[in-house]
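Appendix B. Chain record.
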Amino acid sequence: MAVVVAALVQAAGDDPAGAALGAALSLSVPAEYRQLIEKAGNTCPEVSPNLLAALLTQESGFNPKARSPVGAQGIAQFMPSTWESHGIDGNGDGKRDVWDPSDAIPSSAKYLCTIARDVRDVPGNPQHNMLAAYNAGSGAVQKYRGVPPYKETQNYVRSITALANKATPGTGQEANTTQAGTALDAAKSMLGTPYAWGGGNTHGPSTGTCCSPSGRSGSSIRGFDCSGLTVYAYAKAGINLPRTAAQQYAASKPVKPDQVRPGDLVFYGTSAAGIHHVGIYIGRDLMIDAPRPGTRVRYSPLDTMPDLFGIARPTSLPSKEI
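Structure tokens predicted for this chain:
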């Protein structure tokens, strides 16, 4: 396999130190945190081990020494003021230490349960409202009577939900070589189609929406964005993919570098929950993708972006979106 693909190593999800947690999460969880998460994930009905593991993946990637630019600390990324109010002595050693996962993980679950109670009278999905409150505050969820119209918060809820609902490896039917070939042919038939932010569906190109992170609108363009192209291509092969790149990773099975084959999906981002781009691998360190506003569906090298995260194979499991 070529250099770029081989360099993925553990990015494709192969982590011998961890194991999938629960029946619905295939992200690797470090062994030293598995028992903590399984116990804390049953603190209240709105929290599950899968959801808690997905949240910790998003917040810190299970790094107990993580510190954000705005001052959030530890594996659960508590702000000091929130820790002061909600941190607990989870391991019973007589102190509350935000840097100790034995305290921070049960504190995160307890805090989730607290804000779930804060927003229990808000219409909609209780877990989505809870996650939105974790990100944007209970007041925002109460004000907007649900997940607030903040793109960051909406993406946060969507990504964690997709990760939490991810299937255990081997439980779904992987795309076979015939399906992969059909998807590739469908994508190739769209070469030259304009990029449209939010554009594309199972039927083909469509008018997009507003707005991309750079402020570009696709509302006057008929075409595809990156995940819209993959949705269309795999629909032609009989596989229904979720709409966003992060959700598509959650609905796919990571493959080892020496097992990558044409038709697999190529993902970019700094974490599983933070994936922002997807393309379809065609071989020879190339993929077909809809890169960004102002471009068209084209062939691109795998190193076209610096944050290649992994390559995964779609499964025929039903997608779950919010």
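Further analysis of this model is presented in Appendix C.
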